[in-house]
Amino acid sequence: MILAGLAFAAALGSSDQGTFGTLPDGTRIGIYTLRNRNLEVKITNYGGRIVSLKVPDRSGAMAEVVAGFDSLDAYLGTNPFFGAAIGRYANRIAHGAFTLNGRQFMLAKNDGENSLHGGLLGFDRRVWDARLNGNSLVLHYRSKDGEEGYPGTLSVTVTYTVSAGELRIDYQATTDQATVVNLTGHSYFNLAGAPARDILDHEITIAADQYTPVDKGLIPTGELRRVDGTPFDFRAPHKIGERIAARDEQLEFGGGYDHNYVLNAPNAQRPVLAARVREPRSGRVLELLTTEPGLQFYTGNSLDGTLTGHGGTVYSRRSAFCLEPQHYPDSPNHHSFPSTELRPGQRFHSVTIYRFSAS
Question: Is the Cβ–Cβ distance between 355 and 165 less than 8 Å?
Fold first, then answer.
C-alpha cells in the first residue's frame, strides 16, 4: 500500500523550494520545483525565470530542454532574457515612446533607440513574491507608477502549473491608471536534450497566414503580410533550417527568424494551438497553446558562444529557439493592431500552455 501511494503521488506531482542564491543587497532568492513523472520544472522568483525544464524522449529518458544557468550569479550578468517573465511590455516599442490619452510617455531605451522587453530593469530583473500552492507556483509583483517610464501602478500575478505533460502559465494584471501591458515568457528551447546541437533540424508548424514585417530596427512597419510563397510559411511542417538562409530582406533584418506571427485565432477565449515543434532524433514534441493574438518566433540568432549554462553547455548561434505568445510588437504606436491598453477596473488575463509528448 505504501508503494502504491508513492506511485499515485508521483503521478499527481509534487513541489518543493530551496535557496538559489543571494543578491548583492542580501536578498535571498528562492528556487521552486514542480514535478510529476512527465515533467520537472525549476523556477526562480528572480525575474520569474524558468531555470530548468526536463521532459522525456520517446524512450522515456529525461533531459534538459531549455537554456539556462546553474547559479543565480550568472543571471545577474548580461544574458538574453533566458527563461524570464517579460513585462511591462514584451518585444519592442519604437523610439521608447508612445502616446496614451493625448499624453506622451518616454520609456527606458535598452535596444538602440528602442525599448525592449520592459526596459533596463524589466520584470526579468525584479524580485517577485512567491508562494507554492499544490502543483502551482504563484508569483506576484507590484510595478510602481513610472517604473521604466510606464504609467500606473500595475499589480501582476504569474502562475505556473504542471499537470501530466503540460506546463501552464497564467498571466494576470490590474492597474490604477490607464497603461499598456504585454506579458509573455522568454524560454529558449532545444528539444534534442543535447543543447550542443543546433535547432535547425527541428520541424515546426505555426498556425498563421500572416506575419508583421519589420524595418532594419526590427520594428513592425504596420503591414500584415501573407506568408504564402515565402520562407515564413510554416502552415505545414518545415525544418527550421530549411529556408533560414534564403535571400529574403526580412531574414536579413532579423539575422534569421525574429518575427511576430499573426495567429489565425486572434480572439481566443480559451488556449488554442498556435505552434508545434518536433525534434526527430529524440521524438520530443512541443505544442504551444495560447490565448494571445501573436507569436514571436526567434531562432537564437544572437547567441554567440560567450554564455555557458547547464552542465557546461555553450550556447552558440541557433542552439535554441523561442516561441513567445504576445500582442504585436509596438502596438501602442499602431492603432490597427490589437490594443494593449489596460484601464482601471479591467483585468488582463493571458494563458500559455507548453504541452510535451514524444513520438
Answer: yes
